[in-house]
Amino acid sequence: MTDILSKKLESKIDNKLFSKSRRKTLDDGFKKGKVINEVLDKPTVMTLYKIISDGIISYVNGPVSAGKESVLFWAVDKNENDIALKVYLVSTSNFKKRESYIAGDPRFKNIKSGTKNLVYLWAKKEYKNLQQSFEAKIPVPKPLHVSNNVLVMEFVGINGKPSQLLLNSEVDENDYSQALDMIKNLYSKAKLVHGDFSEYNIFKTENGLCLFDLGSAVDLKHPNAIEFLKRDINNINRFFSKRGISTIETNEIMEDLLDEL
Ligand SMILES: Nc1ncnc2c1ncn2[C@@H]1O[C@H](COP(=O)(O)OP(=O)(O)O)[C@@H](O)[C@H]1O
Ligand SMILES: [Mg+2]
Fold first, then answer.
1. What pTM did the predictor assign?
2. What is the arithmetic mean of pLDDT over 152-166?
């Protein structure tokens, strides 16, 4: 492609991506142009364009949250449903440490090396984990599509504002038992261990808790599955006990769960 042609295509993509969105900046002060130019590299923009031309979404409204390794965008589909796009960053990411969450998982035996492939694989892994969890009826955002480093899923929240994190919510015993049920069902029904289970990766919605950020979830056969399970239970016990809820001993929960199988 000539330079002029690719410039033209790029600006067309920019316009198309954000055509229907009116606000210039979002609540967090992000300038849209800046995000698209500096955070998303060209292959990612092409991937987003393909997701639009395939009709999976209609347009991107703008960024909602930016982490070190991913940016979450609010998009809309043709029926005006809010959609979440989790874009894993290829350029800035520090994916090396994630390798250990993939190697050892029998679902991902033949790993191609290279950061880009690893990032693409990570997006696919989060998609699969969401799928397995959704099918096991665990409350997670419904996975819709994955393409390269872009994961498309149900948006949990209203008008581009994500639901409140468990971290920022009032909690009671019922929330604790829901959180434990999520860990248990993940294990016994979805055959997964979350690996990063915490108040930062759970929404508290009016319909109860909703678990997300499943990129690090591993198959039960992963050599560290039990260690991750223990850490997940410890995390949630620590959070609820700090909030004055009486919790069940980690070992007791582990034993019950492992006995059940
Ligand atoms: N499905 C979703 N719907 C709405 N907001 C979401 C969704 N998934 C993630 N978010 C928002 O994006 C933020 C980061 O998402 P997360 O998956 O935890 O990424 P990270 O890997 O950066 O921790 C969350 O704290 C939440 O505010
Ligand atoms: Mg997270």
1. 0.86
2. 97
Pick the catalytic residue: 213, 219, 256, 259?
Answer: 213
Mean pLDDT calculated for residue range 99-112: 80
CATH superfamily of 163-260: Transferase(Phosphotransferase) domain 1 (1.10.510.10)
Instruction: Tell me the average pLDDT across 202-229.
Output: 97
Active site residue 256: no
Do 57 and 152 meet the contact criterion of CB atoms below 8 Å apart? yes
User: CATH: 3.30.200.20, 3.30.70.3340, 3.30.540.10, 3.40.630.30. Which one for 3-159?
Assistant: 3.30.200.20
72 Cα: distance to centroid of ligand 1 (angstroms): 6
Using a 6 Å cutoff on CB, does residue 162 contact ligand 1?
A: yes
Q: Is 141 in the pocket of ligand 1 (CB under 6 A)?
A: yes
209 and 185 Cβ atoms separated by less than 8 Å: no
In angstroms, the CA 39 to CA 66 distance is 10
Report domain extents, the chain: 3-159, 163-260
List residues, by chain if needed, whose CB lies under 5 Å from ion ligand 2: 201, 213
157-158 and 192-193 strand pairing: unpaired
Span from the CA of 197 to the centroid of ligand 2 (angstroms): 9
Query: Is 196 marked active-site?
Result: yes
From residue 139, alpha-carbon distances to 23, 181, 202, 204 in Å are 32, 10, 10, 11
